[in-house]
Automatic annotation (TrEMBL):
Name of the protein this chain belongs to: Ubiquitin-like protease family profile domain-containing protein
Family matches, as InterPro entries: DUF1985 (IPR015410), Papain-like_cys_pep_sf (IPR038765), Peptidase_C48_C (IPR003653)
Family: Belongs to the peptidase C48 family.
Domain Ubiquitin-like protease family profile as annotated: residue spans: 296-514
Species in which this protein is naturally found: Brassica campestris (Field mustard)
Keyword Transmembrane helix tagged: yes
GO MF annotations in UniProt: cysteine-type peptidase activity
Length: 547
């Protein structure tokens, strides 16, 4: 992981810091999912279920979640935009963290078809008779209020026509996000009359274009309300996904949801976003001076001993950990090794065993780095014999290794395991293993370093061996799905080590923040030098690393 130093430069902000418009006005939108209820009652349950599985059925699934929309969250991101030239991207800069909202993020969030438009498509359909029956001008698409006027009479219509009315409502509300008095463009509205043509059309690209176009033309500082079009809910979910921890605090994550758009069941809790970001930065406070002095004095003393013929392994240990990037004698001098990760995990373990633990729950554990290393090394043998070494049972019962004894049994007393995992021979990632939900969460600070398929393979010692361990240690009556593997999830929207070389520090900070119940706002390359000093001083103070 070769590195290069340098400070990031961003385009100018849309508004200067301190001059961002407050949300004194109302943000309007017409992507009102509550309007779908009347449509559901009119088209009937059979049609509703068919619409749910259509190309735009994600809108119905989102409506069924009944999550809470938050205009304040969205407004804060919009007024912190960067003034960029790209017409189909939105960039925001929040506490030195740049966040991009583009077609790629929209597709990932919604799961809607965002393929390019087929410019050479030769397609048409006879549509006039249906518009006449609906009392809609044949040269224009329908309005939502015209569709709603049909609700009392369409209950006796053929299923095919009820489906078409339902699809038009979904387009108006969920895709275009336009007012009830605005028309759906005719060339798109008539696609509801041809199921194949409707299904293959990239409605996600339509919804994204409408949303971003409305963002680009809005003026936020004038003292009147402003309106967004398109699927605005994708924008809110992008915010939840982009600022780790924010969604968990102000919404409720749904594990293993079909797409991120369906991953959040919101609450009504309010947020002052600037205060939220400011509070989150406090957890990256500077190292206590007295602790730093101790470790620096130790390094000096140890190096002096080296001149007299004594070893300097301890000094090298701390120098590797605390030296800033510009002071590295070689490009990989500051890469953290097993001994550094083991010392940090030992420190976290000791903190968890304190009577007044700083962590958010007593039901967490930090497996020893050397135990995890043995776990990975034993995977090949496990694949041949399907047998687990005895030390796995001891670890399950909180009795192994000796310096990590907790007396807490996994599942009974421990829900979450936090561990650091060395992958690809040159990279550290953090793992959060949820034993109850059987999910392995991967936090990777350089997502481009290891391809996703390779990362899944690197996690197989856990996804494959944990079910076997649970089958061995848990009463069979309580194991309803003994053959189920642990689910693998790799997070996309977390702070990245843009100047590679600090994946070890990022991994330890991910673990520490997760255990404390914090999100990662404020974690960036800019604060890593301070984090190195802090980690070295705390390890020396709490673990007294000597080799």
């Amino acid at each position: 992981m070769a590195s290069s130093s340098g400070t990031k430069k961003y385009p100018p902000r849309l508004y200067e810091i301190g001059k961002t418009p407050i949300q004194s006005r109302s943000m309007n939108h017409s992507c009102l999912l509550s309007n779908l209820q009347a449509m559901k009652e009119s088209v009937g349950e059979d049609v509703w279920l068919e619409l749910r599985e259509s190309a735009v059925g994600m809108i119905i699934k989102l409506k069924e979640l009944e999550y809470t929309w938050s205009a304040k969250h969205v407004h804060y991101f919009l007024v912190n935009q960067l003034a960029i030239q790209y017409s189909h991207e939105v960039w925001s800069l929040i506490e030195d963290q740049s966040l991009r909202f583009s077609l790629y993020e929209f597709e990932d969030i919604t799961g809607l078809n965002c393929d390019p438009f087929e410019m050479q498509e030769q397609w048409d359909v006879a549509h006039e008779d249906f518009w006449v029956e609906m009392k809609v001008p044949i040269s224009e698409g329908p309005k939502l209020n015209e569709l709603q006027a049909l609700f009392p009479i369409i209950r006796n219509w053929p299923r095919e026509k009820r489906v078409m009315v339902g699809l038009l409502c979904l387009l108006s509300i969920g895709i275009f996000g336009i007012s009830s008095n605005s028309r759906i463009p005719l060339h798109l509205a008539k696609r509801v009359m041809d199921p194949a043509a409707f299904q293959r059309h990239p409605w996600g690209r339509v919804a994204f274009t409408r949303l971003v176009d409305s963002i680009k033309v809005v003026t936020y500082e004038e003292k009147r309300s402003y309106t967004l079009h398109g699927c605005v809910h994708a924008l809110l979910i992008w915010i939840y996904e982009s600022v780790p921890g924010l969604g968990e605090i102000y919404g409720h994550r749904i594990e293993e949801a079909e797409v991120p758009l369906l991953s959040w069941h919101g609450s009504c809790q309010r947020i002052n976003f600037p205060n939220f970001c400011a509070q989150e930065k406090k957890k990256y406070q500077k190292v206590a001076p007295e602790k730093l002095k101790k470790v620096l004095d130790f390094i000096k003393s140890d190096l002096e001993d080296a001149e007299s013929g004594y070893g300097d392994r301890s000094a090298r240990f701390y120098l590797t950990l605390l030296l800033p990037r510009e002071a590295w004698p070689t490009k990989n001098y500051g890469w953290l090794h097993d001994s550094h990760m083991a010392a940090a995990m030992h420190m976290f373990h000791r903190r968890s065993m304190q009577s007044q633990s700083p962590f958010c729950s007593p039901r967490i554990a930090f497996p020893d780095r050397w135990f995890v290393n043995s776990w990975v090394n034993d995977y090949k043998k496990f694949g041949e014999t399907n047998e687990l070494p005895e030390y796995f049972s001891m670890a399950f019962n909180g009795e192994y290794p000796a310096e990590f004894v907790t007396g807490k049994k996994w599942l009974k007393d421990v829900d979450s395991l936090f561990l650091c995992h060395h992958v690809n021979g040159d990279h550290w990632v953090a793992l959060h293993i949820n034993l109850q939900k059987q999910v392995i969460h991967v936090y990777d600070s350089i997502r481009t370093w290891v391809p996703d398929k390779k990362m899944q393979e690197e996690c197989m010692p856990f996804t494959k061996m944990l079910p076997a361990l649970l089958n061995k240690m848990v009463d069979p009556k309580l194991r309803t799905k003994p053959d189920k593997q642990f689910t693998y999830r790799r997070y996309k929207k977390i702070p990245q080590n843009d100047d590679p070389g600090d994946c070890g520090l990022y991994t330890l900070k991910y673990i520490e923040c997760l255990a404390l119940g914090y999100n990662f706002v404020g974690l960036s390359d800019q604060i890593i030098p301070a984090m190195r000093l802090k980690m070295a001083a705390e390890i020396y103070d709490e673990v007294a690393m000597e080799d």
